[in-house]
Amino acid sequence: MRFRVVSSSLLAFCLLAIGSLGQEKKKTPKPPDMEIVTASARRSGDAIHFDGTVRNTSAKPLQKVLILVDVFAPGHKPMVQRKSALEPDYLAPGDEADFHLAMPDPGQLVEFELQAEDGKARELRVAKNGPFPIE
């Protein structure tokens, strides 16, 4: 009788283990490292001026962050990417910093998106990164 109870328990455990092998563990996405608070682009003469504010939403300080501005033509066609350093270059958790960038206006650009990388060229996860219109 005791053998039957042990073997039944062992069989149930094996079936449970085999059943869980086929199920993939769902990965929860990592939270963003930073968030776009404001972003705008305006035409002035023959240039486009990009301005904005970002917030460090990670638990770690960020250093020497570069903002990458991806600019698009109609139909979300990628045209050019420009980089701008944050001011200041050290961003504690919860702190905000500004970016400013100007580039020549070829006349066909309609929207932009933002990305970021740290001083070691590591891509940062950015929330609320666009697309934003170019006015």
Tags for this model:
11 strands, mainly beta, 15% helix, 135 residues, four-stranded mixed beta sheet, Immunoglobulin-like, single chain, five-stranded antiparallel beta sheet
Short note summarizing the structure:
This protein has 135 residues and is mainly β. Helix content is 15%, strand content 47%.
Textual characterization of the structure:
The protein is mainly beta and 135 residues long. It has one domain: Sandwich (Immunoglobulin-like), CATH 2.60.40. 15% of the residues lie in helices and 47% in strands. The strands form three sheets. Strands 4, 5, 8, 9 and 11 form a five-stranded antiparallel sheet that branches. It has a four-stranded mixed sheet with strand order 7-2-1-10, with no helix packed on it. The N and C termini lie far apart (82 Å).
> What is the mean pLDDT?
87
Question: From the helix content, strand content and strand pairing, which structural class follows?
Answer: mainly beta
- Strand content range: over 45%
- The CATH architecture designation is Sandwich
Q: Count the helices. How many? A: 1
Note the overall shape. Answer: globular
Summarize the biggest pleated sheet. Answer: 5 strands, antiparallel
Order of helices and strands: HEEEEEEEEEEE
Uncertain runs are none
Question: Can you tell me the number of structural domains?
Answer: 1
Which homologous superfamily in CATH is the superfamily?
A: Immunoglobulins
Q: Which percent bin holds the helix content?
A: 10-25%
Work out the radius of gyration. 25 Å
- The CATH class is Mainly Beta
